[in-house]
Amino acid sequence: MWALVESDSITKIINNPKAMVIGDVQYPAKIFQLWSESELNAIGIYEVITNSSNKKDERWYINTNESYAFADNQVTRSWGTATPKAHADSLYTAQDNTDGLIPDDKDVGDVKTRGLKYNLIQTIKQQASGLLAPTDWYVVKASEVSDYSVPTNIATYRASVRTKSNEMETLITNATDTPALETLYTYTEQDDGSVTRPLGELPTLEI
Fold first, then answer.
1. Calpha distance 49→186 (Å, rounded)
2. Alpha helices, DSSP H only, in the chain?
3. pLDDT single digits (tens) 111-129
4. Which residues of 82-98 are buried (b: 16+ CB within 10 A; e: fewer)?
5. What is the rounded CA–CA span in Å between residue 182 and residue 57?
């Protein structure tokens, strides 16, 4: 990525090499590969240096829009301070009602936007449901056929999925802040060489 700087101001961001007219001169795209840095700088083209120190994982944070600055003969791309995503649901307020922002099928106190924890827990529920679905037929058959019962290994597995799902949901609910949530999902190598995360994993059925 490059930037065109004219009169000490960034006038264009160049994502890929391309032919350009700068001033009254037509330059071919090949200059980006063939010219030296100083040669490009001489006509106002600078490679963009990315400073991502403020950019955070978008699973947990809302990043600001990227911005570009030119100083000391260098173009820098950076972000402002990231904001942690709200953990709790946001609700419609009386002010929203006054401002006419509440949909017809909603009212003050109804959920406006789901929070991060709700979405994470819903993902766990969906994953657990997906794991249970292939063995649902055992349960259906047991409810319809009087002399049939769910095999012990299947019943044990289904119970373990529900137990672990509940444990994972509780860990998410009890996380005190965004770094705590991040830690739950962060995989690290253990002394025995395994790679695990504090949140753990839903069990799989062993045949």
1. 29
2. 31-34, 37-42, 94-98, 116-132, 136-144, 152-174, 178-184
3. 999 999 999 999 999 999 9
4. beebebeeeebeeebee
5. 9
Classified as helix, coil or strand, 180 is helix
**Which residues does residue 27 pair with via DSSP β-bridges, in sequence order?**
20
Cα torsion through 18, 22, 27, 31, rounded to 10: -70
Length of the chain: 207
CA angle 31, 37, 42 (to 5 degrees): 80
Q: What is the per-residue pLDDT across 145-170, written as a single tens digit (0 to 9) for each?
A: 999 999 999 999 999 999 999 999 99
- Domain ranges in the chain are 2-83, 86-114, 115-207
pTM of the shown model: 0.81
